[in-house]
Write a structure and sequence with these properties.
Distance between the termini: 22 Å
Number of domains: 2
CATH class of the largest domain: Alpha Beta
CATH topology of the largest domain: Peroxisomal Thiolase, Chain A, domain 1
Largest sheet: 9 strands, mixed
Number of helices: 13
Structural class: alpha+beta
CATH architecture of the largest domain: 3-Layer(aba) Sandwich
CATH superfamily of the largest domain: Thiolase/Chalcone synthase
Amino acid sequence: MSRRVVVTGTGVITPVGNDVETYWKNLLGGVCGIDFIRSIPTDDLPVKIAGEVKDFVPADYGIETPFARKQDKFTVYAVAAAWQAVNESGIDSSDGGNVDPFRFGVYVGSGIGGFSTQVRETEKIIKEGAKWVSPLFIPTMIANIAAGNIAIRNNACGPCLPVVTACATSTHAIGEAYRAIKHGYADAIIAGGAEAAVIPLGIAGFANAKALSRAEDPKYASLPFNRNRGGFVMAEGAAMLVLEEYEHAVARGANIIAEVCGYGNTCDAHHVTAPRPDGVTQSAAIRQALDEAGYTSDDVLYINAHGTGTALNDVSETSAFKLALGEDAYKAHISSIKGSTGHMLGAAGAAEAVAAVMALRDGIVPPTVNLDEADPECDLDYTPNTPVEAPLTIAISDSLGFGGHNGCVAFRKYNG
């Protein structure tokens, strides 16, 4: 059995907007959500900038104060983004609803999970003793708990599969959800990711691994494909899509935003943090997604690139695009939104998938912010600084994670 899969809902919590239309408007406007860190002391930290979520009010997303107070921030962000996506979709598994709860799933992951909870409770056991560790420590910290809470709140009794593949987490979650629906295991799935790692240990860990930008100007720190780039900028947030079987969506009169049409998944098998420099394995994931999507040279392609702004990623990713597309790589519209958002780690892939879907919907390519001096080795059309209108027919979003995890999802413009 092979069934069509469509997107019927989206939701985001990001450094440049806490709803999809604000997020999309700010991406097109070149708004940068990176700033000096305000949520934690930074005096002793080597990096003092990040992409933090701003003006977030849990109650605006149906989240009760006791829940928000007890849960780790990554779960609260996840629940808020899922609330948006479900509301936009109109999917409902309650009694008399429009989807069988046992055919309704949740594929939501996190690269790290409840990081701040883990640090807080570790400090307790060291300073005060074991008896002071919260009984809620484990079910608040574990990386699958955002998925569990989303399932509970939406009566989703079908497949629930959190994914943990570092920065490729939510791209893989979307891809695996697509396959589950395509092959008949579910009718609808909430898919995406969440992250809240802007804490001292997170900043110190990534900085000491030489992964973070040491730039002092927050507005010129995340520099995808720029010759001046010096590392990624950590960010936080969540993003979700409701994926649904096409006939199911049509039968209930859902608004279809785009069609999911391809997925690729490979591993570099090369290094724990560095990408494979020749781009061979990354290109294989991209090619898998394009082949399944039925891509041809007649398509007008948008690529939402991983584009972290690290020295190694941007060059190897450029090589991967050329290997996957050949001469077509030079006519593809490509951009990285991380110049605006920073790197949302496990949430990045889903946030970027939402941007890809919006690009298809509106026929507009969002820009790569801060691309004022292109790296000569990154010589493709990376849409510097200004959005470009284009009659897009297909879009892909690729993500490349520590451990060599590569994922790519493909979407087609929905024309009925």
